[in-house]
């Protein structure tokens, strides 16, 4: 089964929400692969994911097939990235070992099948939280680890300063993502016409856009920033001010296993809360000796025993934070302003800094 | 004294199922069938159980919901308010369009290249060999991307046509080659164009009538009427006359640069051109080999006999060799047509919205109904392929060697 999914994942064009480097290939074989997975994955989708993970000794984590900054293998074959950080934190919390993760690359199409068939325990793959996915596809989004939104990039020479001036434009768009729906809605709402140029890969989008085969390129703003940064002359292109959609990206688990959902949710919030309370990978040992801040003590397991309520060790959150640092550290290391992706915190700052990252209280 | 008795009339015993060669093959075929059936039953029930365990079900209700996405080429009315089903139809028609264009083009290319591969001219022969080997030995996906990349990179963007001294100009002031596709003048059907259409159809029938008359005359009396120019005249002249008599009912709408793009006229998307020609030249190379094999399968004596009757090489090829070669060419040609249709599902590589792009791509992604979409896709390709092979088999029966 695992083999089938990986095989399907590798062969199949991946489309993801934010931004992608994918390869096009034979779709029929792929989709057959996905069906085989669905047909063979017997009973793995039952409850008690926690027991399965513990018995297996490894966490199966569905990630992007390769999106630098979010999830991509580095030169040594080690998976690195913002979404990867979530997987490692959960593995550390549950198994005490951040390396006990099997990363399973999934594409836009295989990701949901892989999750519902039990192929993966968590899906951390720039997946936009939508009503249909949450309700109709029977998944639970445990939180939002990146607040994104769809924007437009145009060449400066076009003389366009607002997305409202794009009537009649040819728009390059990555196909199979929520961005496609937002685009259709936005132009319909503003009574404008456009011609979509569906694009399969990030590289192809760049080529088409730079050749002038489309007037504007639209995807999540984080993706636009990453693309623009990679241009020869980034200054010749502007990202228009309009953000036309909400793209809350977050980790997903199966609906129905609430215990497992709680573990993933609170591991994620432990990372967020850690940033808020100043727990970093540098000072975590020092702080876990005991502090005068009760909430920090509760997170680090030196006061009360929140871990037992989750069915985990008392040091679960400490292990999760130690795995890759708190939320802010993960952000800065993988997609922050000092990386090639160069994203500012924006909406993803802590609520205390005017952002939307707000962990519920640990008590 | 010996007593002769009849050999015992074998009553059926169970062991005969295995030891009697009369029954043995049935036994094993039956066992194999049961194994296959139970394998599929297992897969099917497993799928259903798992879907149920995950709280999912097989439902095609999503086809009636609005699709919410746009498609850049649709042969029928379509907007983002249309249903997923209609989006699937748009995709299906786009698949059929590109498959149809590519089948026709590949056949023409293949027949020409196949005949020329046997040319006595060394250069022509080697050029065609190079074409066949180069094109059929590189995956078609690569060809699709190569052609599309060339179109995108070499042709100017519409903005290059703008300004006092544009970098690019339209061919004859009417046709624009851009990296977004080809813009052609579109005909506007004014009043009276229906009459024009009727006259044109009548002319086509006239051409066939003339040709069958000429053939009959040739067979009956041996008189050879000219075929070429009278056919052409019958085809063109009446329509041309009527066009002017009716006061030019059909006018052309020229594409014009307005806003971001050319407006008006007909746009042929670059992705359609790339996919169409990649499939055509790729499969054309295979067809060329079929044609060559077919021609070589016709005994040399046939061509020599025709030559000794005084037939020119062209006529020998058309009247003697090709008709006999067809029975060898048609069966593999069917699989080439099927390949074109199925390979057209690579369309997404260049963003052409075929049924794999709409139903199997965006719809599948937006609704998450992977199994339903894939089953529909499989059914679609199966039906199309069986239809093509059915039609071609009818044709094959018509041209195959008649044994009486």
UniProtKB/TrEMBL annotation, chain A:
Q: Which Gene3D superfamilies match?
A: Periplasmic binding protein-like II
One of the protein's GO biological processes? amino acid transport
Lineage of origin: Bacteria, Pseudomonadati, Pseudomonadota, Alphaproteobacteria, Rhodobacterales
Q: Name one Pfam family in it.
A: SBP_bac_3
Keyword set, alphabetical order: Signal, Transport
Q: Please give the family membership noted in the entry.
A: Belongs to the bacterial solute-binding protein 3 family.
Q: Which residues form the Solute-binding protein family 3/N-terminal domain?
A: 58-287
Q: Which residues form a coiled coil?
A: none
Q: What is this protein called?
A: Amino acid ABC transporter substrate-binding protein
Q: Which organism is it from?
A: Puniceibacterium antarcticum
């Amino acid at each position: 089964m695992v083999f089938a999914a990986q095989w399907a994942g590798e062969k199949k064009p991946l489309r993801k929400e934010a931004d992608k480097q994918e390869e096009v290939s034979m779709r029929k074989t792929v989709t057959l692969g996905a069906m085989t997975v669905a047909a063979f994955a017997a009973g793995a989708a039952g409850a008690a994911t926690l027991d399965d993970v513990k018995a297996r000794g490894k966490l199966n984590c569905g990630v992007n097939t390769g999106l630098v900054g979010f999830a991509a293998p580095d030169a040594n074959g080690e998976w690195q990235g913002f979404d990867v950080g979530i997987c490692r934190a959960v593995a550390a919390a549950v198994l005490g070992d951040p390396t006990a993760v099997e990363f399973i690359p999934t594409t836009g199409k295989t990701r949901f099948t892989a999750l519902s068939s039990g192929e993966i325990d968590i899906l951390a793959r720039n997946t936009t939280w939508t009503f249909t996915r949450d309700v109709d596809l029977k998944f639970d989004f445990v939180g939002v680890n990146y607040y994104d939104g769809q924007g437009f990039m145009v060449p400066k020479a076009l003389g366009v300063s607002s997305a409202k001036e794009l009537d009649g434009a040819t728009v390059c768009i990555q196909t199979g993502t929520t961005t496609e729906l937002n685009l259709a809605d936005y132009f319909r709402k503003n009574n404008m016409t456009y011609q979509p140029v569906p694009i399969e890969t990030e590289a192809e989008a760049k080529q088409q856009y730079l050749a002038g085969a489309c007037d504007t390129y639209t995807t999540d703003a984080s993706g636009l920033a990453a693309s623009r940064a990679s241009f020869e002359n980034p200054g010749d292109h502007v990202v228009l001010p309009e953000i036309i959609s909400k793209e809350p990206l977050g980790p997903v688990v199966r609906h129905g296993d609430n215990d497992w959902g709680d573990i993933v949710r609170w591991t994620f919030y432990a990372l967020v809360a850690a940033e808020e309370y100043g727990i970093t990978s540098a000072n975590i040992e020092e702080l876990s000796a005991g502090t005068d801040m009760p909430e920090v003590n509760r997170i680090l397991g030196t006061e009360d025993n929140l871990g037992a309520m989750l069915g985990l060790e008392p040091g679960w959150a400490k292990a999760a934070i130690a795995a890759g640092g708190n939320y802010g550290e993960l952000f800065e290391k993988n997609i922050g302003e000092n990386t090639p992706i160069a994203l500012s915190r924006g909406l993803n700052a802590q609520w205390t800094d005017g952002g939307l990252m707000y962990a519920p209280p640990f008590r | 004294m010996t007593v002769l008795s009849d050999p015992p009339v074998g009553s059926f015993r169970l062991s005969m199922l295995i030891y009697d060669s009369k029954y043995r093959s049935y036994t094993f075929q039956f066992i194999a069938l049961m194994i296959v059936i139970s394998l599929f039953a297992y897969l099917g029930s497993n799928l259903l159980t798992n879907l149920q365990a995950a709280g999912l079900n097989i439902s095609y209700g999503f086809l009636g919901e609005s699709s919410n996405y746009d498609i850049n080429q649709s042969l029928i009315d379509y907007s983002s308010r249309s249903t997923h089903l209609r989006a699937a139809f748009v995709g299906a028609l786009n698949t059929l369009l590109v498959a149809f264009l590519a089948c026709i083009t590949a056949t023409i290319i293949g027949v020409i290249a196949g005949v020329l591969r046997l040319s006595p001219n060394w250069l022509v022969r080697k050029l065609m060999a190079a074409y066949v080997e180069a094109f059929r030995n590189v995956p078609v996906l690569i060809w699709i991307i190569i052609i599309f990349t060339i179109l995108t990179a070499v042709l100017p963007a519409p903005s290059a046509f703008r300004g006092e001294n544009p970098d690019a100009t339209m061919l004859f002031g009417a046709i624009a080659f851009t990296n977004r596709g080809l813009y052609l003048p579109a005909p506007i059907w004014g009043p009276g164009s229906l009459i024009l259409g009727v006259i044109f159809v009548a002319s086509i029938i006239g051409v066939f009538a003339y040709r069958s008359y000429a053939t009959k005359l040739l067979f009956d009396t041996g008189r050879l009427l000219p075929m070429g120019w009278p056919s052409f005249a019958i085809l063109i002249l009446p329509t041309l006359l009527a066009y002017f008599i009716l006061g030019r009912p059909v006018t052309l709408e020229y594409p014009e640069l307005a806003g971001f793009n050319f407006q008006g006229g007909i746009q042929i998307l670059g992705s359609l051109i790339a996919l169409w020609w990649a499939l055509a030249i790729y499969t054309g190379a295979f067809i060329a080999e079929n044609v060559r094999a077919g021609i070589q399968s016709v005994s040399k004596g046939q061509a020599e006999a025709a030559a000794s009757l005084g037939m020119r090489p062209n006529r020998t090829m058309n009247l003697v060799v090709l008709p006999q070669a067809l029975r060898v060419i048609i069966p593999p040609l069917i699989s080439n047509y099927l390949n074109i249709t199925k390979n057209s599902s690579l369309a997404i590589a260049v963003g052409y919205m075929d049924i794999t792009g709409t139903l199997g791509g965006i719809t599948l992604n937006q609704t998450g109904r992977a199994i339903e979409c894939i089953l529909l896709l499989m059914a679609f390709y199966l039906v199309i392929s069986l239809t093509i092979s059915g039609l071609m088999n009818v044709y094959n029966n018509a041209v195959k060697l008649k044994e009486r």
